[in-house]
Write a structure and sequence with these properties.
11 helices; 284 residues; alpha/beta; binds adenosine monophosphate; single chain; 20% strand; six-stranded parallel beta sheet; three-stranded antiparallel beta sheet
């Protein structure tokens, strides 16, 4: 039977029991509204640890004032039964007050500007402070051996990896591959905001990234012009705007040097008010 833990105290005593029994703990942080992408993280955590804790918490600190915090889909009953089915051992589902008892003005964890001031961070000021702060808090509460995140949020993973290294947190981060729909669209809770006609356009973002990937694999190093063509392509496919399509070094997130062999093609584009993210790792 899966434990449903709402308070930090209940979580800590569960964790302590498992620790005393010598068990390892894998952790999967989520904002709920679970889909096959999240569940792949749960499976990965199960394979790599004795006990799996999943958190479900829509974190107000990582949403901007004009973002979708209020309308973000909350489906806790369905999430619980999926987690039960995928054999999570506990779900940690604190209230906002339990996570931020002193309100949201509190100590912040801030990753380096060179990683948080670009891409998502440039479009969503303060977003990564919210992410690093809540994940650092969750890590202190759960004290896991490993934590599993999705490649889908590529920059988020890079930022969190940097945080873990910089603050010497004794936790191994695992990056799990992107789970996609049959037509190639990266699964996301925000996909349900899409209208029927937008749903037909959405997978074209991945198609555009794949054509950049193919060009790179066949020797083209003119990243800027490849990205410009991809932007034009997705606009003509029907996207309303493109925030960015870029090729970067997959670790530093800086523009790639000529000899870099591990790249990432990252993209964010809008269909109506819905922002879609996608990326492809390119190892040469
Ligand atoms: P979220 O609930 O959107 O904050 O996501 C929680 C975790 O699930 C993050 O580590 C995401 O990167 C990961 N995730 C979301 N969508 C996918 C997907 N399609 N494939 C793999 N992981 C995903």
């Amino acid at each position: 039977m899966m434990d449903v833990l709402e308070s930090v105290d209940a979580l800590r005593s569960k964790v302590q029991k498992w620790r005393e029994a010598g068990l390892t703990i894998g952790f999967v942080p989520t904002m709920g509204n679970l889909h096959a992408g999240h569940l792949s993280l749960v499976e990965e955590a199960r394979q790599k640890s004795d006990k799996v804790i999943v958190s479900v918490f829509v974190n107000p600190l990582q949403f901007g004032p004009n973002e979708d915090f209020d309308r973000y889909p909350r489906t806790f009953e369905a999430d619980k039964s999926l987690l039960q089915q995928y054999q999570a051992d506990a779900v940690f589902c604190p209230s906002v007050n339990e996570m931020y008892p002193h309100g949201q003005t509190q100590t912040l964890v801030t990753a380096p500007e060179r990683m948080t001031g670009i891409l998502e961070g440039e479009k969503r000021p303060g977003h990564f402070d919210g992410v690093t702060t809540v994940v650092a808090k969750l890590f202190n509460m759960v004290q896991p051996d490993i934590a599993v995140f999705g490649q889908k949020d590529f920059q988020q993973f890079a930022v969190l990896q940097q945080m873990v290294e910089d603050l010497a947190m004794p936790i191994t981060l695992i990056r799990a591959p992107i789970v996609r729909s049959e037509v190639g669209l990266a699964l996301s809770s925000r996909n349900q905001y899409l209208t029927e006609s937008q749903r037909l356009i959405a997978p074209k973002l991945f198609v555009a990234l794949q054509s950049i990937e193919m060009a790179i694999q066949s020797g083209n190093r003119n990243y800027e012009s490849l990205c410009q063509s991809a932007v034009q392509q997705v606009i003509s496919d029907g996207f309303d705007s493109v925030d960015y399509i870029q090729v970067l070094n997959s670790v530093s997130l800086e523009p790639p040097g000529v000899d870099d062999r591990s790249l990432v093609i990252v993209a964010a584009a809008k269909l109506g008010n819905t922002r879609l993210l996608d990326n492809i790792l390119v190892i040469m």
